[in-house]
Amino acid sequence: SGLLSRLQTSALSSSKSFSQNIPSCLWKLGRLNHVAIAVPDLEKAQSLYKDVLGAQVSETVALPEHGVYTVFVELGNTKLELLHPLGEKSPIASFLQKNKTGGMHHICIEVDDIKAAMTELKEKKIRILSEEPKIGAHGKPVIFLHPKDCHGVLVELEQA
């Protein structure tokens, strides 16, 4: 019983110190909304998820402001977003030039207050790739955080 009480005390003190290290924010990070995958052939990718894997797959939607075509694959607890270039200035076109077979492009996490997130992240020297949020594929404001400030991952934040 002495060991058990020492373990409980140790676990309790470590959970307190862990929670004390979490800064209080004016905004809150939410659930993973989607993982985006750049694909060189959108029809083939749609077919893989729909016909081979049996997933529910959306229709293709053009987002000219973002320079992409998008397709969403429903996974129950989250989604995959298939991205294909729309126009020559598409960021996905340059991504696919470096990654010929495609690959993971970004992750999207929901936030409860995108404006507060932008203000605080700028104060913390996290670069945001636009001055103002743009309307994303779900019709909600989104911003992207610079991958060099996020351990090599392009992070999209979406207003929940």
From TrEMBL:
The record's EC number reads: 5.1.99.1
EC category name = isomerase
All copies of the VOC domain together span 31-160
**Catalysed reaction equations from the record:** (R)-methylmalonyl-CoA = (S)-methylmalonyl-CoA
A cellular-component GO term for this protein? mitochondrion
MF annotations from Gene Ontology: metal ion binding; methylmalonyl-CoA epimerase activity
Query: Which keywords has UniProt assigned to this entry?
Result: Cobalt, Isomerase, Metal-binding
GO terms (BP aspect): L-methylmalonyl-CoA metabolic process
**Belongs to which family?**
Belongs to the methylmalonyl-CoA epimerase family.
Q: Do you know which NCBIfam families this protein is assigned to?
A: metmalonyl_epim
Chain's role: Methylmalonyl-CoA epimerase involved in propionyl-CoA metabolism.
Alphabetized PANTHER family for the sequence: METHYLMALONYL-COA EPIMERASE (PTHR43048), METHYLMALONYL-COA EPIMERASE, MITOCHONDRIAL (PTHR43048:SF3)
The identity of this protein, by name, is Methylmalonyl-CoA epimerase, mitochondrial
The species this protein was found in: Sterrhoptilus dennistouni
Q: Source taxonomy lineage?
A: Eukaryota, Metazoa, Chordata, Craniata, Vertebrata
